[in-house]
Protein backbone atom coordinates (compact mmCIF):
# COMPACT_ATOMS: atom_id res chain seq x y z
CA UNK A 1 0.00 0.00 0.00
CA UNK A 2 1.34 3.45 -0.86
CA UNK A 3 1.64 6.12 1.86
CA UNK A 4 -1.03 8.19 0.07
CA UNK A 5 -3.56 5.38 0.63
CA UNK A 6 -3.26 5.42 4.43
CA UNK A 7 -6.12 7.52 5.87
CA UNK A 8 -5.07 10.59 7.90
CA UNK A 9 -6.89 9.60 11.15
CA UNK A 10 -5.26 6.12 10.91
CA UNK A 11 -1.84 7.73 10.51
CA UNK A 12 -2.41 10.03 13.48
CA UNK A 13 -3.65 7.07 15.54
CA UNK A 14 -0.52 5.11 14.59
CA UNK A 15 1.75 8.01 15.53
CA UNK A 16 -0.11 8.46 18.84
CA UNK A 17 0.25 4.72 19.54
CA UNK A 18 4.00 4.81 18.89
CA UNK A 19 4.42 7.93 21.04
CA UNK A 20 2.31 6.37 23.77
CA UNK A 21 4.49 3.24 23.75
CA UNK A 22 7.66 5.36 23.86
CA UNK A 23 6.30 7.36 26.79
CA UNK A 24 5.30 4.14 28.56
CA UNK A 25 8.75 2.68 27.95
CA UNK A 26 10.33 5.82 29.41
CA UNK A 27 8.02 5.76 32.40
CA UNK A 28 8.90 2.10 32.96
CA UNK A 29 12.67 2.66 32.70
CA UNK A 30 12.37 5.64 35.03
CA UNK A 31 10.63 3.44 37.61
CA UNK A 32 7.50 5.59 37.58
CA UNK A 33 4.98 2.79 37.04
CA UNK A 34 4.75 2.06 40.71
CA UNK A 35 1.58 1.91 42.82
CA UNK A 36 2.25 5.42 44.15
CA UNK A 37 2.71 7.20 40.87
CA UNK A 38 5.42 9.84 40.53
CA UNK A 39 5.40 11.03 36.95
CA UNK A 40 6.89 13.96 35.04
CA UNK A 41 3.86 16.29 35.43
CA UNK A 42 3.89 15.64 39.22
CA UNK A 43 7.57 16.59 39.34
CA UNK A 44 7.07 19.75 37.29
CA UNK A 45 3.94 20.68 39.33
CA UNK A 46 6.07 20.41 42.47
CA UNK A 47 8.73 22.74 41.05
CA UNK A 48 5.90 25.19 40.33
CA UNK A 49 4.29 24.87 43.75
CA UNK A 50 7.68 25.46 45.44
CA UNK A 51 8.60 28.75 43.71
CA UNK A 52 5.59 29.72 41.53
CA UNK A 53 5.10 29.81 37.76
CA UNK A 54 7.39 32.22 35.93
CA UNK A 55 5.88 32.44 32.45
CA UNK A 56 8.18 31.34 29.65
CA UNK A 57 10.97 30.22 31.98
CA UNK A 58 12.39 26.78 32.74
CA UNK A 59 10.82 25.00 35.73
CA UNK A 60 14.28 24.11 37.04
CA UNK A 61 17.57 25.93 36.41
CA UNK A 62 15.28 28.93 35.81
CA UNK A 63 17.97 31.60 36.18
CA UNK A 64 20.42 31.52 33.31
CA UNK A 65 21.73 32.99 30.08
CA UNK A 66 22.53 31.87 26.56
CA UNK A 67 26.03 31.43 25.11
CA UNK A 68 27.37 30.58 21.65
CA UNK A 69 30.59 29.25 20.21
CA UNK A 70 32.01 26.05 18.75
CA UNK A 71 33.60 22.73 19.63
CA UNK A 72 37.01 21.98 18.12
CA UNK A 73 37.39 18.21 17.97
CA UNK A 74 40.94 16.82 17.92
CA UNK A 75 39.78 13.37 16.72
CA UNK A 76 40.69 11.50 19.94
CA UNK A 77 37.05 10.82 20.90
CA UNK A 78 36.69 8.60 17.80
CA UNK A 79 38.59 5.95 19.79
CA UNK A 80 35.33 5.20 21.65
CA UNK A 81 32.53 6.78 19.59
CA UNK A 82 31.78 7.02 15.89
CA UNK A 83 29.70 10.20 16.51
CA UNK A 84 30.43 12.78 13.78
CA UNK A 85 31.25 15.23 16.57
CA UNK A 86 34.44 13.31 17.39
CA UNK A 87 35.92 13.44 13.88
CA UNK A 88 38.53 16.24 13.65
CA UNK A 89 36.86 19.58 12.86
CA UNK A 90 34.56 22.28 14.23
CA UNK A 91 30.91 22.00 15.36
CA UNK A 92 28.73 25.05 16.22
CA UNK A 93 27.33 25.11 19.76
CA UNK A 94 24.32 26.83 21.38
CA UNK A 95 24.72 26.72 25.15
CA UNK A 96 23.24 27.91 28.40
CA UNK A 97 24.74 28.64 31.82
CA UNK A 98 22.38 28.53 34.80
CA UNK A 99 21.95 27.86 38.48
CA UNK A 100 19.59 25.09 39.65
CA UNK A 101 16.27 25.91 41.27
CA UNK A 102 12.91 27.24 40.12
CA UNK A 103 13.36 30.84 41.26
CA UNK A 104 14.56 33.02 38.35
CA UNK A 105 15.46 35.84 40.80
CA UNK A 106 17.50 33.72 43.22
CA UNK A 107 20.73 35.50 44.28
CA UNK A 108 23.65 33.62 42.70
CA UNK A 109 25.32 33.12 46.09
CA UNK A 110 22.25 31.28 47.41
CA UNK A 111 22.96 28.26 45.17
CA UNK A 112 26.25 26.33 45.38
CA UNK A 113 25.87 24.55 42.02
CA UNK A 114 26.28 25.96 38.48
CA UNK A 115 25.21 24.31 35.22
CA UNK A 116 26.24 24.24 31.59
CA UNK A 117 23.92 22.93 28.87
CA UNK A 118 25.10 22.45 25.28
CA UNK A 119 23.53 21.71 21.90
CA UNK A 120 26.10 20.59 19.29
CA UNK A 121 24.77 21.09 15.75
CA UNK A 122 26.47 18.32 13.76
CA UNK A 123 27.09 18.72 10.01
CA UNK A 124 24.99 15.66 9.13
CA UNK A 125 21.88 17.25 10.72
CA UNK A 126 22.15 15.29 13.96
CA UNK A 127 22.35 16.96 17.36
CA UNK A 128 24.01 16.15 20.66
CA UNK A 129 22.39 17.81 23.65
CA UNK A 130 23.78 17.60 27.15
CA UNK A 131 23.04 19.22 30.52
CA UNK A 132 25.88 19.20 33.04
CA UNK A 133 26.25 20.29 36.67
CA UNK A 134 29.27 21.50 38.63
CA UNK A 135 29.58 18.32 40.72
CA UNK A 136 30.77 14.88 39.58
CA UNK A 137 27.85 13.10 41.27
CA UNK A 138 24.12 13.74 41.55
CA UNK A 139 22.31 14.10 44.86
CA UNK A 140 19.89 11.20 44.32
CA UNK A 141 19.89 7.90 42.46
CA UNK A 142 16.23 7.53 41.46
CA UNK A 143 13.43 9.77 40.09
CA UNK A 144 11.32 8.91 43.16
CA UNK A 145 14.04 10.24 45.47
CA UNK A 146 14.29 13.36 43.30
CA UNK A 147 10.55 13.94 43.80
CA UNK A 148 10.78 13.30 47.54
CA UNK A 149 13.65 15.76 47.79
CA UNK A 150 11.58 18.40 45.97
CA UNK A 151 8.74 17.88 48.46
CA UNK A 152 11.19 18.19 51.36
CA UNK A 153 12.63 21.41 49.86
CA UNK A 154 9.32 23.30 49.73
CA UNK A 155 9.96 26.77 51.18
CA UNK A 156 8.36 27.45 54.56
CA UNK A 157 5.87 30.32 53.95
CA UNK A 158 7.11 32.05 57.15
CA UNK A 159 10.80 32.19 56.14
CA UNK A 160 10.68 31.74 52.34
CA UNK A 161 13.38 29.07 52.82
CA UNK A 162 13.25 25.27 52.96
CA UNK A 163 12.67 23.79 56.39
CA UNK A 164 16.07 22.38 57.38
CA UNK A 165 14.49 19.76 59.65
CA UNK A 166 12.52 18.33 56.70
CA UNK A 167 15.57 18.34 54.44
CA UNK A 168 17.74 16.71 57.12
CA UNK A 169 15.08 14.02 57.56
CA UNK A 170 15.15 13.38 53.80
CA UNK A 171 18.96 13.15 53.76
CA UNK A 172 19.07 10.73 56.72
CA UNK A 173 16.44 8.52 55.09
CA UNK A 174 18.45 8.54 51.81
CA UNK A 175 22.13 7.84 52.56
CA UNK A 176 22.89 7.77 48.78
CA UNK A 177 22.86 11.58 49.02
CA UNK A 178 26.04 11.56 51.16
CA UNK A 179 28.73 11.62 48.40
CA UNK A 180 27.08 14.71 46.82
CA UNK A 181 26.76 16.51 50.15
CA UNK A 182 30.36 15.67 51.08
CA UNK A 183 31.60 16.89 47.69
CA UNK A 184 29.77 20.22 48.08
CA UNK A 185 31.23 20.71 51.56
CA UNK A 186 34.77 20.17 50.27
CA UNK A 187 34.39 22.41 47.18
CA UNK A 188 33.29 26.01 47.85
CA UNK A 189 31.25 27.51 44.97
CA UNK A 190 33.29 29.03 42.14
CA UNK A 191 33.65 32.75 41.37
CA UNK A 192 32.73 32.33 37.69
CA UNK A 193 31.04 30.07 35.17
CA UNK A 194 34.37 30.33 33.32
CA UNK A 195 36.48 28.63 36.02
CA UNK A 196 33.96 25.87 36.78
CA UNK A 197 34.22 22.21 35.76
CA UNK A 198 30.94 20.68 34.57
CA UNK A 199 30.10 16.97 34.64
CA UNK A 200 27.50 15.10 32.56
CA UNK A 201 27.22 12.76 35.62
CA UNK A 202 24.92 10.14 34.04
CA UNK A 203 26.59 7.28 32.14
CA UNK A 204 26.10 6.85 28.38
CA UNK A 205 27.02 4.06 25.97
CA UNK A 206 29.52 4.91 23.24
CA UNK A 207 29.81 2.81 20.06
CA UNK A 208 32.92 2.96 17.87
CA UNK A 209 33.17 2.39 14.08
CA UNK A 210 33.69 -1.36 14.63
CA UNK A 211 30.53 -1.63 16.74
CA UNK A 212 32.37 -2.03 20.09
CA UNK A 213 30.48 -0.46 23.00
CA UNK A 214 31.83 1.08 26.19
CA UNK A 215 30.17 3.07 28.98
CA UNK A 216 31.39 6.66 29.22
CA UNK A 217 30.84 9.83 31.25
CA UNK A 218 32.04 13.31 30.34
CA UNK A 219 33.39 16.45 31.94
CA UNK A 220 34.12 19.98 30.69
CA UNK A 221 37.43 21.02 32.28
CA UNK A 222 37.91 24.83 32.33
CA UNK A 223 41.04 26.49 31.03
CA UNK A 224 40.61 29.29 33.63
CA UNK A 225 41.90 28.45 37.11
CA UNK A 226 39.31 27.80 39.83
CA UNK A 227 38.72 30.49 42.47
CA UNK A 228 36.05 30.50 45.17
CA UNK A 229 33.32 33.17 45.06
CA UNK A 230 34.40 36.25 47.05
CA UNK A 231 32.63 38.21 49.79
CA UNK A 232 32.25 41.11 47.32
CA UNK A 233 30.62 38.86 44.73
CA UNK A 234 28.17 37.53 47.30
CA UNK A 235 26.74 41.05 47.64
CA UNK A 236 25.80 41.11 43.91
CA UNK A 237 22.76 38.89 43.20
CA UNK A 238 23.82 38.53 39.53
CA UNK A 239 27.58 38.29 39.85
CA UNK A 240 27.83 35.22 37.61
CA UNK A 241 26.30 36.98 34.57
CA UNK A 242 28.28 40.18 35.23
CA UNK A 243 31.54 38.23 35.55
CA UNK A 244 30.85 36.28 32.35
CA UNK A 245 30.15 39.45 30.35
CA UNK A 246 33.39 41.04 31.64
CA UNK A 247 35.46 37.96 30.76
CA UNK A 248 33.91 37.54 27.29
CA UNK A 249 34.68 41.21 26.54
CA UNK A 250 38.37 40.20 26.89
CA UNK A 251 38.08 37.19 24.54
CA UNK A 252 36.68 33.65 24.20
CA UNK A 253 36.51 31.16 27.08
CA UNK A 254 37.61 27.52 26.77
CA UNK A 255 37.00 24.09 28.30
CA UNK A 256 38.40 20.65 27.41
CA UNK A 257 35.84 17.91 26.80
CA UNK A 258 37.21 14.89 28.70
CA UNK A 259 35.60 11.45 28.30
CA UNK A 260 36.02 8.89 31.10
CA UNK A 261 35.77 5.27 29.95
CA UNK A 262 34.26 2.71 32.36
CA UNK A 263 35.94 -0.61 33.10
CA UNK A 264 33.74 -3.71 32.82
CA UNK A 265 31.52 -3.88 35.90
CA UNK A 266 31.53 -0.14 36.71
CA UNK A 267 27.92 0.78 37.55
CA UNK A 268 26.07 2.75 34.87
CA UNK A 269 22.79 3.12 36.77
CA UNK A 270 23.96 5.05 39.81
CA UNK A 271 24.65 8.79 39.37
CA UNK A 272 25.52 9.14 43.06
CA UNK A 273 28.76 7.18 42.59
CA UNK A 274 31.92 8.20 40.71
CA UNK A 275 33.97 5.60 38.87
CA UNK A 276 37.50 4.99 40.22
CA UNK A 277 39.98 7.79 39.39
CA UNK A 278 42.20 5.27 37.56
CA UNK A 279 39.78 4.95 34.61
CA UNK A 280 41.02 5.89 31.13
CA UNK A 281 40.40 9.52 30.20
CA UNK A 282 40.31 10.92 26.66
CA UNK A 283 40.68 14.64 25.89
CA UNK A 284 38.37 14.90 22.86
CA UNK A 285 38.80 18.62 22.07
CA UNK A 286 38.07 22.17 23.12
CA UNK A 287 34.80 24.02 23.67
CA UNK A 288 35.21 27.70 22.75
CA UNK A 289 32.50 30.12 23.92
CA UNK A 290 32.52 33.58 22.32
CA UNK A 291 29.34 35.46 23.27
CA UNK A 292 26.54 35.60 25.82
CA UNK A 293 22.95 36.85 25.42
CA UNK A 294 20.01 37.14 27.86
CA UNK A 295 17.87 34.00 27.90
CA UNK A 296 14.69 35.88 26.88
CA UNK A 297 16.24 36.79 23.51
CA UNK A 298 19.06 34.26 23.06
CA UNK A 299 19.24 31.15 20.89
CA UNK A 300 19.01 28.82 23.92
CA UNK A 301 15.55 30.06 24.87
CA UNK A 302 13.67 27.57 22.70
CA UNK A 303 16.01 24.63 23.27
CA UNK A 304 15.06 21.66 25.41
CA UNK A 305 18.41 20.32 26.66
CA UNK A 306 17.06 16.78 26.84
CA UNK A 307 20.12 14.59 27.59
CA UNK A 308 18.70 11.66 25.61
CA UNK A 309 19.00 13.53 22.29
CA UNK A 310 22.21 11.93 21.09
CA UNK A 311 23.95 11.36 17.76
CA UNK A 312 24.67 7.94 16.28
CA UNK A 313 27.63 6.63 18.33
CA UNK A 314 26.18 7.62 21.73
CA UNK A 315 23.09 6.27 23.50
CA UNK A 316 21.54 6.43 26.98
CA UNK A 317 22.65 3.92 29.62
CA UNK A 318 20.31 2.13 32.05
CA UNK A 319 20.55 5.07 34.51
CA UNK A 320 16.89 5.64 35.57
CA UNK A 321 17.49 9.40 35.89
CA UNK A 322 17.98 9.75 32.13
CA UNK A 323 14.47 8.70 31.13
CA UNK A 324 13.04 10.74 34.01
CA UNK A 325 14.98 13.80 32.91
CA UNK A 326 13.79 13.44 29.32
CA UNK A 327 10.14 13.23 30.39
CA UNK A 328 10.32 16.11 32.92
CA UNK A 329 12.24 18.42 30.56
CA UNK A 330 9.59 17.80 27.92
CA UNK A 331 6.75 18.79 30.29
CA UNK A 332 8.66 21.90 31.39
CA UNK A 333 9.54 22.76 27.78
CA UNK A 334 5.93 22.38 26.54
CA UNK A 335 4.55 24.55 29.33
CA UNK A 336 7.09 27.33 28.85
CA UNK A 337 6.74 27.31 25.05
CA UNK A 338 2.96 27.73 25.35
CA UNK A 339 3.51 30.62 27.75
CA UNK A 340 6.13 32.11 25.42
CA UNK A 341 3.65 31.99 22.52
CA UNK A 342 0.95 33.65 24.67
CA UNK A 343 3.42 36.37 25.74
CA UNK A 344 4.44 37.00 22.11
CA UNK A 345 0.75 37.13 21.11
CA UNK A 346 -0.08 39.62 23.89
CA UNK A 347 2.95 41.71 22.93
CA UNK A 348 1.84 41.69 19.27
CA UNK A 349 -1.71 42.76 20.21
CA UNK A 350 -0.39 45.54 22.44
CA UNK A 351 1.60 46.91 19.52
CA UNK A 352 -1.39 47.02 17.13
C1 LIG B 1 15.13 12.92 37.92
C2 LIG B 1 16.12 13.79 37.81
C3 LIG B 1 15.96 15.17 37.23
C4 LIG B 1 14.82 15.89 36.95
C5 LIG B 1 13.39 15.47 37.16
C6 LIG B 1 15.25 17.16 36.40
C7 LIG B 1 14.39 18.17 36.00
C8 LIG B 1 14.72 19.29 35.28
C9 LIG B 1 13.81 20.20 34.61
C10 LIG B 1 12.29 20.09 34.62
C11 LIG B 1 14.56 21.14 33.97
C12 LIG B 1 14.03 22.29 33.08
C13 LIG B 1 14.11 21.83 31.61
C14 LIG B 1 13.61 22.83 30.57
O1 LIG B 1 12.53 23.44 30.72
O2 LIG B 1 14.29 23.00 29.52
C15 LIG B 1 15.94 20.84 34.24
C16 LIG B 1 17.00 21.55 33.79
C17 LIG B 1 18.29 21.15 33.90
N1 LIG B 1 18.78 20.02 34.54
FE1 LIG B 1 17.71 18.62 35.43
N2 LIG B 1 16.61 17.19 36.34
C18 LIG B 1 17.08 15.99 36.83
C19 LIG B 1 18.38 15.57 36.91
C20 LIG B 1 19.45 16.27 36.42
C21 LIG B 1 20.81 15.80 36.40
C22 LIG B 1 21.30 14.41 36.87
C23 LIG B 1 21.55 16.79 35.84
C24 LIG B 1 23.03 16.84 35.58
C25 LIG B 1 23.71 15.87 35.04
C26 LIG B 1 20.65 17.87 35.48
C27 LIG B 1 21.01 19.03 34.84
C28 LIG B 1 20.14 19.99 34.38
C29 LIG B 1 20.56 21.16 33.65
C30 LIG B 1 21.99 21.52 33.27
C31 LIG B 1 19.41 21.88 33.36
C32 LIG B 1 19.32 23.23 32.65
C33 LIG B 1 19.23 23.04 31.17
C34 LIG B 1 19.20 24.40 30.55
O3 LIG B 1 20.08 25.22 30.85
O4 LIG B 1 18.27 24.63 29.77
N3 LIG B 1 19.38 17.51 35.85
N4 LIG B 1 16.02 19.72 35.06
Automatic annotation (TrEMBL):
Annotated keywords: Heme, Iron, Metal-binding, Oxidoreductase, Peroxidase, Signal
Domain named Catalase core: residues: 37-352
Pfam families cross-referenced by the UniProt entry: Catalase
Entry-linked SUPFAM superfamilies: Heme-dependent catalase-like (SSF56634)
Positions contributing to heme binding: 329
InterPro entries, A to Z: Catalase, Catalase_core, Catalase_sf, Catalase_SrpA-type_pred
Enzyme class of the recorded protein, top EC level: oxidoreductase
EC numbers, comma separated: 1.11.1.-
Cofactor(s) the record lists: heme
Molecular function in Gene Ontology: catalase activity; heme binding; metal ion binding
GO cellular component: cytoplasm
One GO BP: response to hydrogen peroxide
Active site: 61
Family: Belongs to the catalase family.
PANTHER family with a match to the protein in the record: CATALASE
Protein name: Catalase-related peroxidase
Native source species: Paraburkholderia bannensis
Amino acid sequence: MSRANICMPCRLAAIAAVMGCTAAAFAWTAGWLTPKRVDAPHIVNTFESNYGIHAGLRRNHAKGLCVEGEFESNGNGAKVSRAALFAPGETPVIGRFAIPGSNPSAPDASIPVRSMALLFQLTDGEQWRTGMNSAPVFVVRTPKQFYQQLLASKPDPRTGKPDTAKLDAFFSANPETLPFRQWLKAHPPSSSFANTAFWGINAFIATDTDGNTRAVRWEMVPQSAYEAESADQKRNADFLADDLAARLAQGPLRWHLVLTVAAPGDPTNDATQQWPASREQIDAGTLVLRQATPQRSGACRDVNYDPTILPDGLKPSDDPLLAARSAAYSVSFNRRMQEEAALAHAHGEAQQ
